[in-house]
């Protein structure tokens, strides 16, 4: 209501209302309804658009909604417009890391994590995180976190933290990939819209759930066709630019690390599906376990990050994917390994006979 009053008190709004008030007397009833709907839409836009003109994602979708209940107990939630939607695994991982960070000593930085996604979590339902202190050493600390929903464990993870000291200056990392920059690339959403306009069947497009699960991350694959269609097994590696659009303070390393963990779970299942023929539909694609190693403690999480991913093995419906997250200036930020459970839809015998 306050936003509506502020909107109407603007000089341009008052002049518009004066003219609209005169015009309303000349309009039919259905036109009055249209005018009311226009004002409602204007109010919604005024709430969603930030001062710099950028449309922000709904606050309820921020994974940072984590609250401390007591020592070692935290509660988080991820709300959605879909009551039957599953929580994005990276969301749970990021909240688990944030809870672990809250209990870790100051000046200790996460350097590795290992986790299992045991059950699918439901959105709109609180998730309880229980943090257990495993070790507090001089240079390393370890935390174990269990996430519960409906009195059942849906996720468990282990985090190791390293104290910030005077490290050796010797470093080594692989060569930064030679790929095109993100500015000239389509987003995954733009690619989907274009391909559907060209007559593509939406059911065979891949990686579409990512937009719903993480609307605050902009995704620009270097090869949009492979990302959306698959590669028929001809390419088992893909490069994807990611950009986290919600501002994070440069000195908030805990939030930056949790956000990077959040992003590290994106699109790996999609890479695990590259080997399947184009046109394959999937009945299931989900993360089973995920590991990551942090190589840089300080970085700008709001800059473009390149996610290099490769499916290195697939057997018994499980794909093993390796990944590397790079900063725009060529620093290796994180290495990841994930096992994804992937079930292609089985064609019915009737469909096979019809094709024969």
TrEMBL record:
Coiled coil: none annotated. The keyword ATP-binding does not apply. Keywords: Hydrolase. Signal peptide: none annotated. Residues 86-155 form the Acyl-CoA thioesterase-like N-terminal HotDog domain. It comes from the Eukaryota. CDD domains: Thioesterase_II_repeat1, Thioesterase_II_repeat2. Residues 233-342 form the Acyl-CoA thioesterase-like C-terminal domain. One of its GO terms (cellular component) is peroxisomal matrix. GO terms for molecular function: fatty acyl-CoA hydrolase activity. GO terms for biological process: acyl-CoA metabolic process; fatty acid catabolic process. Belongs to the C/M/P thioester hydrolase family. This is Acyl-CoA thioesterase II domain-containing protein. It comes from Steinernema carpocapsae.
């Amino acid at each position: 209501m306050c936003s509506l009053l502020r909107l109407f008190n603007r000089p341009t709004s008052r002049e518009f209302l004066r003219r609209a008030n005169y015009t309303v007397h000349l309009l039919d009833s259905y036109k009055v309804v249209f005018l009311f709907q226009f004002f409602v839409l204007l109010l919604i836009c005024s709430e969603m658009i930030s001062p710099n003109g950028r449309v922000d994602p709904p606050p309820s979708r921020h994974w940072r909604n984590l609250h401390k209940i007591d020592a070692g107990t935290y509660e988080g939630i991820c709300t959605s417009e879909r009551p039957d939607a599953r929580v994005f695994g990276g969301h749970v991982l990021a909240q688990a890391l944030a809870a672990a960070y809250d209990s870790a000593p100051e000046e200790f930085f996460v350097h590795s994590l290992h986790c299992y996604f045991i059950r699918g979590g439901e959105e709109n339902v609180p998730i309880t995180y229980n943090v257990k202190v495993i070790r507090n050493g001089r240079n390393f600390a370890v935390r174990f976190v269990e996430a519960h929903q409906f009195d059942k464990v849906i996720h468990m993870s282990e985090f190791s933290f390293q104290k910030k000291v005077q490290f050796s200056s010797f470093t080594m990392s692989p060569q930064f990939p030679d790929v095109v920059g993100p500015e000239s690339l389509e987003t995954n959403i733009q690619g989907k819209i274009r391909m559907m306009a060209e007559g593509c069947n939406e059911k065979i497009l891949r990686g579409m759930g990512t937009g719903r699960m993480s609307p605050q991350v902009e995704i620009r694959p270097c090869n949009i066709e492979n990302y959306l269609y698959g590669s028929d097994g001809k390419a088992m590696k893909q490069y994807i630019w990611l950009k986290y659009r919600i501002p994070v303070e440069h000195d908030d390393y805990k939030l930056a690390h949790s956000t990077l963990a959040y992003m590290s779970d994106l699109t790996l299942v999609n890479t695990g599906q590259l080997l399947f023929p184009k046109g394959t539909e999937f009945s299931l694609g989900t993360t089973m376990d995920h590991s990551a190693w942090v190589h840089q403690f300080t970085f700008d999480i709001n800059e473009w990050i390149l996610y290099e991913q490769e499916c290195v093995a697939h057997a018994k419906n499980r794909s093993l994917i390796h990944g590397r997250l790079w900063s725009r200036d060529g620093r290796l930020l994180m290495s990841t390994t994930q096992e994804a459970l992937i079930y292609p839809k089985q064609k019915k015998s009737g469909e096979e006979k019809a094709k024969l």
